[in-house]
């Protein structure tokens, strides 16, 4: 049961059956069992177990990540107690923020995909002259990272860091990233000899594709990172932190130097445009159909992703709101402006303004 980073009065469920995501049509079929009365009755048992020590021991199993000076911002979410225990075992020097679990989130909202929520972590890293910092969402399955210069690394950049040691150990392995991710990631995986696959955005879609392909690593721009190599195939932000420490250590370089070496592309955040719930799928379909009619060949993995010499733009319907979302990435600011002009033209033809 989790409300993740949603407002404090929200709750939800993540469902798993036989280590596979249980979503979409599965949930609809489950709901139909209620009025049909198609369930079984019986007796069971409830047992209590102290999971935290075993969990932290598992995070540290085989640790070979070296010693760093690290900041940790738990945002008063569920990760706090585990981070307190983990940092007692990790080598190096660790500075912790907001580890008390408090669903009122008195310091800031625990959503590391919003840069404003990383302000405290940036200050901590700068003030204490740390090597880098980690932040976590409310239920500890998404991670944010800040380098010593205050730069935020998004999920696709984290996958670039993690892919290098993974592909050295598993040559030719598959790495999955969601459709919002930078082209630089897909290119980097290919240069390292891996197989890069693009997936729909969404926790369940990523996990399902990992099972189908046997991929040892996958992730989303939002900071969900999934590990199949030496782990269980799900997104665990504390384990992601441990693996990132290892990747930085094995590189022999500072995180700042690793970020400097990444392509200097210009991109938008997710641009969310409110539309009627009943129109959001139709708008994306209309744009797709006009592109196809004009001879374009967009990627339709999730909405439409259109590539050109300038970069690419993406239009898709929101999974959770009455909205469509836009993201674009250009080789420079002028290229990004041209891409956004294409988006505006595509939306205008469906009566939508960005």
Could you explain how this protein is built, in words?
This protein has helices spanning 25-36, 51-60, 80-89, 119-127, 155-169, 183-191, 203-213, 237-251, 255-260, 280-293, 333-348, and strands spanning 16-17, 20-21, 68-73, 92-97, 132-136, 143-146, 152-153, 174-178, 195-199, 217-219, 225-227, 266-267, 271-274, 304-308, 311-317, 323-330. A 5-stranded mixed sheet has the order 4-3-5-6-7, sandwiched between helices. The protein folds into 2 domains: 1-23 and 54-263, Alpha-D-Glucose-1,6-Bisphosphate, Chain A, domain 3, CATH 3.40.120; 266-348, 2-Layer Sandwich (TATA-Binding Protein). The two termini are 35 Å apart. It has 354 residues and is of the alpha/beta class. Helix 2 packs across helix 3 (80-89) and helix 5 (155-169) packs across helix 8 (237-251). It contains 11 helices and 16 strands. 36% of the residues lie in helices and 19% in strands.
């Amino acid at each position: 049961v989790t409300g993740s980073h949603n407002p404090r009065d929200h709750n939800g469920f993540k469902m798993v059956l036989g280590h596979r995501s249980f979503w979409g049509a599965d949930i609809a079929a489950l709901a139909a069992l209620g009025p049909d009365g198609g369930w079984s009755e019986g007796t069971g048992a409830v047992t209590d177990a102290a999971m935290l020590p075993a969990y932290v021991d598992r995070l540290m199993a085989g640790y070979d990540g070296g010693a760093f000076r690290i900041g940790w911002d738990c945002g008063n979410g569920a990760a706090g107690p585990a981070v307190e225990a983990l940092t007692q075992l990790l080598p190096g020097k660790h500075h912790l923020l907001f580890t008390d679990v408090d669903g009122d989130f008195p310091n800031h909202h625990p959503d590391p995909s919003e840069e404003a929520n990383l302000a405290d972590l940036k200050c901590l890293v700068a003030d204490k002259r740390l090597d880098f910092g980690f932040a976590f969402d409310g239920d500890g399955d998404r991670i944010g990272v800040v380098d010593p210069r205050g730069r935020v690394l998004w999920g696709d950049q984290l996958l670039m860091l993690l892919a290098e040691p993974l592909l050295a150990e598993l040559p030719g392995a598959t790495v999955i990233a969601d459709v919002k991710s930078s082209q630089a990631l897909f290119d980097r995986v290919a240069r390292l000899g891996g197989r890069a696959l693009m997936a729909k955005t969404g926790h369940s879609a990523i996990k399902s594709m990992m099972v189908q392909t046997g991929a040892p690593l996958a992730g989303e721009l939002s900071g969900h990172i999934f590990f199949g190599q030496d782990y269980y195939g799900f997104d665990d932000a504390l384990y992601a932190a441990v693996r990132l420490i290892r990747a930085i250590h094995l590189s022999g370089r500072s995180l700042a130097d690793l970020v400097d070496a990444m392509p200097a592309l210009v991109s938008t955040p997710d641009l969310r445009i409110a539309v009627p719930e009943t129109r959001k799928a139709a708008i994306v379909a209309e744009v797709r159909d006009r592109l196809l009619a004009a001879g374009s060949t967009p990627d339709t993995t999730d909405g439409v992703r259109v590539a050109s010499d300038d970069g690419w733009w993406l239009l898709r319907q929101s999974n959770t709101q009455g909205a469509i979302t836009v993201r674009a990435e250009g080789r420079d600011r002028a290229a990004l402006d041209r891409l956004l002009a294409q988006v505006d033209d595509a939306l205008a033809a469906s009566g939508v303004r960005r």
